[in-house]
Design goal:
The protein contains nine helices and seven strands, in the order ααβααβαβββααβαβα. The strands form two sheets. It has a five-stranded parallel beta sheet, with helices on both faces. Strands 4-5 form a two-stranded antiparallel sheet.
Length: about 290
């Protein structure tokens, strides 16, 4: 459902603080609350990709609650920053973050994966106006993002484009075509975030098709390569708040995360790619998140 701005009540809202330490602390607290809501979302729906969602929570929280230049009241503003969730199977986490920021009504979250709900298992722009592109088939988001970045250049616009891909997703050749294009065009307004959790459905990425030396490969495609701890908000802020640099090298952020972070029995466990916690596991996971709070 596409809500009019007056009906969108941000659950958390944009976060700004005068002190860098206070900003990091506030975003960490928000990410923890967002993890709780996503855990509940998947538990109640009986489906979803909880492992990847929890691992990417800090990335999405930092972007939408602070770094992205986009607001719910002007969701179609041509000068807004773009974010594309290429690993569309963690759509549940995207919906929770959008609800936290005020792009969708938090009261609609319980409809996730229900018949005729706009909150589908993969993000759809026709259902949620804040979604920039329909994603799900892996390897599509990065090429679309490169197109958005090129369009910004042609428009003479300072808007930035961010895209989040999985590391297993990089086995799709379309990504490397887009990387080659972006590097050649020096699309410095493009930031490619690679969720480097080292796991994909049912296996380790290295056992399926190794990506190493990943940083060297990206550098060879004319990218500025930055490696960060993707579960450390302070490191993410330093990259995401950087200004537009069109005409420079595009950025590739290798964000080292843990699937299922920070739940003890989920973290780094490939079984939680598409597993749903039972009542006992749900209770334990929520208790662990409460301790972090």
């Amino acid at each position: 459902m596409l809500y009019p701005p007056t009906d969108r009540q941000p659950w958390i809202g944009r976060i700004d603080r005068d002190s860098p330490a206070e900003l990091v602390g506030a975003l960490k607290q928000a990410a923890n609350e967002i993890r709780k809501r996503d855990l509940r979302l998947v538990h109640e729906a009986g489906a979803g990709h909880i492992g990847g969602s929890l691992g990417a929570a800090d990335i999405l929280t930092t972007l939408y609650l602070h770094s992205l230049h986009v607001v719910p009241e002007r969701v179609s503003d041509p000068e807004r920053d773009r974010f594309i969730l290429s690993k569309g199977h963690i759509a549940g986490m995207l919906y929770v973050v959008l609800a936290a920021r005020g792009f969708i009504d938090p009261e609609e979250l319980p409809t996730f994966l229900q018949p005729e709900s706009d909150l589908d298992g993969h993000p759809s722009r026709t259902g949620v106006a804040a979604v920039e592109a329909n994603t799900g088939p892996l390897g599509h988001g990065l090429p679309i993002a490169a197109g958005h970045a090129m369009a910004a250049r042609l428009d003479g616009s300072p808007r930035r484009t961010f895209v989040l891909t999985g590391d297993g997703e990089l086995q799709e050749g379309s990504n490397w075509e887009a990387l080659m294009f972006a590097g050649h065009q020096k699309l410095g307004n493009l930031t490619v975030i690679i969720d480097r959790n080292r796991l994909q459905q049912g296996a380790r990425v290295a056992d399926t098709n190794t990506l190493e030396p990943l940083a060297d490969k990206l550098a060879a495609f004319n990218f500025e390569v930055i490696e960060v701890n993707g579960n450390e908000i302070a490191e993410l802020l330093e990259v995401f708040d950087a200004p537009t640099r069109d005409g420079a090298k595009p950025r590739a952020v290798i964000a080292h995360t843990n699937k299922g972070h920070p739940i003890s029995f989920m973290s780094g466990n490939v079984a939680w790619h598409h597993k749903v916690p039972d009542d006992k596991q749900y209770t334990q996971a929520m208790e662990e998140l409460e301790v972090i709070s």
